[in-house]
């Protein structure tokens, strides 16, 4: 639905922005703490544990003719060949499946998590790859797998066992975006820059996947945790603009205690701007341009990043459910935010577009495309929730 709303999103004035010093200071603190944690975890985990997630990503690598790819003399020629491999039947059947996993990247004794592993494309992949560079620090920033959403209020950040562990409240759903072309480009570059590493057994591949695919998910985990807080505050203010967000619902693990300092003042600043929005004193556009979920990344940036760098592709209505899962959390946050001002022109514009799109999707029963009755039911429920927020009915 985000692509269909692109015109509405593009009309959001970028000049609408409010100062949020406490939030931005807090996000800088989170980044410093996360940097230290990722470095420490990567340094002291020499032999990562095998896991379903590592084996899954390794299977994507081994589908390609890696020995042939590393023979290319430059990154640009290799990129063209990787694109050819990606479009070949080796990956065609997999791309059409959009696997739904359990216990691949998330682990908890308290319950299972539905993990959506969506294969995505990046419109700006050439610009987002350091082609021609031999400094692997640049390639390590590519991050072929990203976490798009996570609905747990718990922040544990324990990746020692090759899975994000949760002890008290695991997420019900987590959405991952996997870019196969980025994965193959980063992997082949790693092989070329570090020829001394033995890749004749699984240890070489496992170390690469753990350090350069799984560990970066910790950054996304922190971003998704902030996104969850913002989403919950907006939903709270939608019911009662005077209600206060209860921070006791947040669960902090022993490895993430660095998030405690400054948390209350940052959340208070968030509550203040969203309360003003609910009271009509601040526009939703201003909130989207002002509220950041990571250093230098506001809600508007996140919306555009999900559309442009995590594109599902025009693969038919049978895969519309995958695109919906990709965007649901940020879309529901945006819809709830604009619905705080139901009498505004922007809300009216959004509702008109939403009603047209939702009618088409409802008629197509897009949620049935997953082929999994439980998943289809969950997607239908989320779609219905969005329609209710926008006061759209099909009865």
Succession of helices and strands: HHHHHHEEEHHEEEEHHHEHHEEHHHH
Instruction: Note the main sheet.
Output: 4 strands, mixed
List segments where confidence is low: pLDDT < 50 over at least 5 consecutive residues. none
Residues in helix, %: 40-55%
Terminus-to-terminus distance: 21 Å
Tally of DSSP β-strands: 10
Shape: globular
Molecular structure report:
With 395 residues, this protein is α/β, with parallel strands linked by helices. The protein has a domain at 44-219. Helix content is 53%, strand content 9%. The protein is built from 17 helices and ten strands. The protein has helices at residues 6-10, 21-44, 52-62, 66-69, 75-86, 89-95, 125-128, 136-139, 180-193, 202-214, 217-239, 263-278, 284-290, 299-309, 320-338, 345-364, 373-389; strands at 100-102, 106-108, 114-119, 145-150, 154-155, 164-166, 173-178, 251-252, 292-294, 297-298. The strands form four sheets. Strands 1-3-7-4 form a four-stranded mixed sheet. Helix 11 packs across helix 15. The radius of gyration is 21 Å and the shape is globular. The two termini are 21 Å apart. The mean pLDDT is 91.
């Amino acid at each position: 639905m985000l692509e269909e709303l692109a015109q509405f999103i593009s009309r959001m004035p970028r000049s609408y922005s409010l100062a949020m010093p406490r939030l931005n200071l807090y996000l800088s603190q989170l980044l410093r703490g996360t940097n230290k944690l990722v470095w420490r975890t990567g340094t002291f985990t020499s032999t990562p544990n095998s896991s379903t997630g590592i084996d899954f990503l390794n299977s994507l690598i081994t589908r390609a003719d890696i020995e042939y790819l590393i023979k290319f003399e430059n990154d640009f020629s290799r990129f063209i060949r990787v694109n050819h491999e990606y479009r070949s039947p080796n990956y065609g059947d997999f791309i059409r499946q959009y696997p739904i996993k359990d216990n691949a990247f998330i682990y908890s004794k308290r319950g299972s998590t539905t993990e959506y592993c969506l294969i995505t494309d990046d419109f700006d992949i050439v610009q987002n790859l350091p082609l021609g560079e031999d400094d692997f620090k640049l390639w390590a920033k590519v991050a072929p797998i990203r976490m798009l959403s996570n609905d747990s209020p718990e922040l544990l950040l324990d990746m020692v066992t090759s899975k994000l562990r949760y002890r008290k409240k695991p997420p019900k759903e987590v959405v991952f975006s996997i870019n196969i072309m980025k994965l193959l480009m980063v992997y082949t570059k790693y092989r070329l820059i570090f020829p001394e590493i033995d890749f004749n057994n699984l240890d070489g591949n496992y170390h690469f996947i753990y350090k350069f695919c799984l560990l970066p998910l910790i950054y996304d985990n922190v971003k998704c945790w902030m996104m969850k807080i913002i989403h919950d505050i907006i939903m709270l203010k939608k019911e009662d603009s005077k209600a206060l967000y209860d921070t006791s619902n947040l669960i902090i693990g022993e490895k993430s205690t660095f998030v405690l300092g400054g948390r209350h003042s940052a959340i208070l600043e968030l509550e203040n701007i969203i309360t003003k929005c609910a009271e009509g004193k601040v526009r939703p556009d201003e909130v989207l341009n002002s509220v950041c979920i990571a250093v230098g990344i506001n809600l508007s940036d996140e919306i555009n990043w999900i559309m442009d760098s995590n594109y599902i592709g025009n693969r038919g209505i049978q895969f519309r459910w995958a695109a919906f899962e990709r965007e649901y959390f940020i879309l529901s946050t945006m819809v709830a935010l604009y619905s705080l001002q139901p009498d505004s022109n922007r809300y009216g514009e959004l509702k008109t577009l939403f009603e047209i799109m939702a009618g088409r999707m409802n008629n197509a029963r897009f949620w049935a495309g997953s082929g999994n009755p439980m998943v289809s039911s969950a997607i239908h429920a989320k779609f219905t929730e969005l329609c209710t927020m926008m006061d759209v009915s099909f009865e």
